[in-house]
Design brief:
This is Xylanolytic transcriptional activator regulatory domain-containing protein. It is found in: Nucleus. The protein is mainly alpha-helical. The protein contains 20 helices and no strands. It is 53% helix and 0% strand. Helix 6 packs antiparallel against helix 7 and helix 8 runs antiparallel to helix 9.
Length: 531
Amino acid sequence: MTNDFVYSGSTHWSAMLEDIQELRMTLPIEDDHADDLSTEGLDGAGVDIIFGSTPSLPLEHVLARFLPQRTEVDRMVSAYFRAQAVAAPFIHATQFRRFYQQFWENPLHAPPLWISILFSVCHIAASTLRPSTTEEVEKIRFSVAAAHCLAIGQYFRPRRFAIESLLLFAQAECLTTTALSSDIGAILGLLVRLATSMGYHRDPEPLLISPFEKEMRRRLPSGVQFPTWDTKIPRVLQDSDFDETSTELPPSRPELEGSHLIFYNTKHKFMVVFEKILRHTLSTQPNESEVAALDSEMRAEYAVLPEFLRPRPMSDSVVDPANLIVTRLCVSFLYYKCLCVLHRPYVMLQRKESIMVCYDTSSSLVRDFVDAYYEFKPGGQAETERWFLSSITWHDFLFGMMALCLVVCTTSHESAASITGIDTTLALLTRARDLCIEQESNRHKDTRRVISLVEAMIYRFGTANSLPVGLSTAASSAQSAWPMEADESTAYAALWDGTENGEEALTGLAQDPSWDYFEQFLELDMTSNLS
């Protein structure tokens, strides 16, 4: 073992490099970077500053170099706080306004960590809430400035605004990048340690802090295992209902008012169950008898969703605000993902109930994404919420596609095949593939791999007799769309049958009981908690 060895569990994509290499031998599309262990990271300058490989600039240089005129900053801050689906609940609008006014009176006297929050707000607004013509350099500079201020303020020490500034920096990266990065995991790991050392994982009733501070702590997401924290769910309050001078908090507002905090509280309840699901699926000896109980617990939380958060077709949402549309999608995607992660390990074991649940949830996730996709384009119902198509949601989309492929392949030669409709499923996967092709140049190389796998699926299972009109040529698209020679056609068969040039060279995907390669897309990545 070398000093460079890094252990990756079975749910991490790098653990499947051998399978990826075998896929390169069978798929006609070559990826020159498939052997690269590294993943695309965040903007190099910002991360290098945070982790100390690049020295930070003095605060006065940061402000002189990166801070726009006040009128420009005013517009970005206003856009951020108007976007309820994006604005972080742990940033109190009234408190922020007071600090913001003081900042412009004497910028150099403001806490560097609070200034980092301001730059992250500008980063989110410039990248996701303003016209897409905004220069890319302008977007990146706010991230770099936020990183400088984090380093200047020594974010790694327990101090005021350390948690909020670092978390908002991570959230900004998740909302503005097209690929999930391992750098986010490192930042969140540091964040959890810091928050734990500051007691954020305990409800602060016994502590001598104000009601305002207690409530704002409760608005932060949990990042530790359930048995080790006891923080209460925050009340459903508008920021105008309380501030730093409040001696006690008013009662929660009715859920019918549709406060964005209802979404965060709902997500919190889902994540409590999801944490149990993760512990079950990541266990070295999972107990199958727990599956039904966890499934019931997840469905029970979903059953009590407020009506306005329940999913609706886009055609039935024409009078709803865009932020409510994406909130519903966030809730339903999380619900589908929780159940799919729970049941996926049992699909290959031919557990009928798990096959049905995994098929229903993965197809619903993919279908909802495909149906909503073009509404985020200019002129669509949700064009102002284009951030929703960022890395986390796209990762969920790939997740759903791979889970759907897994179910189809698992049931293709079994009596369980009646659970799924192959024609309908291939049609849905074809629509999803078309979106991937449209986005391929803007996305992580994972998207190219998914396209290859879905094309192989169509080649293997799609025939002129089984496909609907308009899709009957999809079965041969791997041959016609790609200039594939006879040996490449044989290679496609090898992908599924485990043979190449008449030899038992590979274990075909359809016969691989572990389906290791799919683990990359079904990995239990807690980074998605920021979505």
